Amino acid sequence: MRWVSVAVFLASAAFLGYVLFGYPLLLAAWARRRPKGIVKRLDRRTVSVLLPVRNGEPWIRRKLESLLELNYPRELVEILVISDGSTDRTEMIVEEFATQGVELLRIPPSGKAVALNRGLERARGEILFFTDVRQPLDPECLNHLVACFADPEVGVVTGELIVLEGDRQEEASVGLYWEYEKWIRRQLNRLGSLLVVTGCFYAMRRALAVPLPAGTLADDAVLPLAAFLQGYRIVFEERARAYDFPTRLEAEFRRKTRTLAGLFQLVRFYPALLGPANRMWLHFYSYKLSRLALPYACLAILVSSFGLPGGWRAWSLGAQALFYLLALADHAIPEAWPLKRISSACRTFAVWMLAALCSAAVLFLPPEKLWKAPPAGPSHGGLPGG
Predict the structure, then answer these.
(1) Helix or strand (DSSP H, E) at 235
(2) Residue 78: closest CA among 175, 206, 164, 237
(3) Is the pLDDT assigned to residue 222 strictly greater than 80?
(4) Which of 161, 236, 146 minimizes the C-alpha distance to 193?
(5) Rounded distance, CA 196 to CA 37, Å?
(6) Looking at residue 191, what is its pLDDT?
(7) Average pLDDT across the chain, whole number
(8) What is the value of pTM for the model shown?
(9) Residue 103 to residues 49, 91, 94, 111, Cα–Cα distance (Å)
(10) Radius of gyration (C-alpha) of the chain in whole angstroms
C-alpha cells in the first residue's frame, strides 16, 4: 500500500504549496490582468466612531486624543465609547472628554458583539468608523477612508495597520507574516474586493450594517461580509493608517485561534459564502477556509512520510524533524545568533498551525471561551503622531 502513502504525501504537499505560495502567485497574475480601480473624492459625510472597550485604561486617553486630532470637521463626527463592563479607570478617563463631545455608553459585561450592537443602535452618522482602543490613528486616516465612499460600489473601507519594529526576532517573524497578509490584500483589492478587513480600524456605510449575533468572534468579518453579500466591495486604502506595537507570539496564538474560530461561525452565519452567490468563492476557499485545513495537511505529510520509499522517507522525516526541533528550540536560541531568524520563523509557523487546530474548539465550547484580547507592547510614546 506504499502508493497510498505516496499519493497522500504528494496531495498534502501540493495543497500546502498551493495555499502558501501557489494561490498568492495566481492571485497576483489575475490582479495584473483584471485590475479594478476605485473612485475617490472627499465628500464630507457624517461619521459615527464606535469604540468598544473593556478595561482599556492604559490606552484610552491616547486613543481619544488621537480621535480628536483627526483632520476631519469635528461637527460631522460623533464619538461613542461603549464600555463593556470596565472595572478599571476607563470610564472615568472617558468622562473627562465629555466636554469635547465624546459620549460614554455603559453596558454590563456582555462581549464585544453586544457592545457594538449598542453602538449601532445609537449611531447617527452616514458612515460608521469602527476602531479599537490600542492603535493611535494618523490624522488624515478618516479623510482617506471617507474619500473611497465616493465610489457607489464601495461598502466597506479598511486601512493599513503599521506594526512598528520590535526588539525580538519572534516579533519580526510575526511582522513578516503581517506583510505577507497585506500583500495578499493588495492583490485582492486590485482584483475587486477583499474578504476581510483590518479589525482595529475600518469604515462602512451605516445602511449596510446588520446586528451581530451574540457570541460573534469575528465581528470584523461578519459586518463587512454583510455588505459584500449585498453586492458591495470591501476595499483597502493604504493611505489610511493606524499604528501598533508588535505583540508576542503567545498573544498572537490567542488572536489567531479566535479569528480562525470565527471562520466556523462565518460559514454558519453566511452559508452563501460556500456557493455561487459568493462572486469570489475561489478566493474564499483558497485564502480563508484553506487556512483551517493547513495543520491537517501537515499531519498528513508527517504520517504518510513513514510509508515513502527508503530514500524519500529518510529525507522527508529528517527535514520535518529538523523543522520541528528548530521550532521547539527557538526559546533557547540567543537573539544574536543568525540561526534565530530561521528558528523563529519555524516556531511562528508551528504556533499558527496549532492555533488552527485549536480553533475547532468553537464547535464544542461557548465562543466567549476563545475570546481574550491580546496585550500590546508599550502603551505610551514611540508612535508616529504621539
Answers:
(1) strand 233-244
(2) 206
(3) yes
(4) 236
(5) 18
(6) 93
(7) 90
(8) 0.89
(9) 10, 10, 8, 19
(10) 22
Cβ atoms of 339 and 320 closer than 8 Å: no
Q: Has residue 373 got a pLDDT over 80?
A: no
Q: What band does 341 get if pLDDT is binned at 50, 70 and 90?
A: confident
Handedness of CA 39, 45, 50, 51 (dihedral sign): positive
* Ramachandran assignment for 234, one of left (phi > 0), alpha (psi -120 to 50 degrees), beta (any other): beta
CATH no. of 47-284 = 3.90.550.10
Mean pLDDT of 65-80: 97
The answer to whether the beta carbons of residues 351 and 253 sit under 8 Å apart is yes
**Residue whose C-alpha is closest to residue 321's, from 301, 291, 341:** 301
Indicate the residue type of 192.
G
Question: Domain-by-domain residue ranges, the chain?
Answer: 47-284
DSSP per position, 108-156: -S--HHHHHHHHHHH---SEEEEE-SS--B-TTHHHHHHHGGGSTTEEE
Q: Which residue has the higher pLDDT, 77 or 379?
A: 77
Helices (H), the chain: 2-17, 23-33, 57-68, 90-95, 112-122, 141-147, 169-191, 219-228, 249-269, 281-283, 290-305, 310-329, 339-359
The pLDDT value recorded for residue 310 is 85
Here the cell at position 75 is 461637527
Nearest partner of 68 among 95, 46, 97, judged by Cα: 97
Q: Is 334 exposed, middle or buried (0-12, 13-18, 19+ CB in 10 A)?
A: exposed
- Select the more confidently predicted residue: 336 or 140: 140
Residue (of 82, 51, 54) closest to 64 by Cα position: 51
Contact (Cβ atoms closer than 8 angstroms) between residue 201 and residue 134: no
Q: Tell me the C-alpha distance between 44 and 272, whole Å.
A: 34
In 3D space, the residue among 115, 119, 80, 120 whose CA is nearest the CA of residue 97 turns out to be 80
Residue 180 makes CB contacts below 8 A (sequence gap 6+) with 24
Nearest to 272 by CA among 317, 231, 320: 231
Do 225 and 248 form a contact (C-beta atoms < 8 A)? no
d(CA 329, CA 352): 17
pLDDT (tens digit per residue) in 238-247: 999 999 877 7
Find out whether 193 and 236 touch, Cβ atoms under 8 Å: no
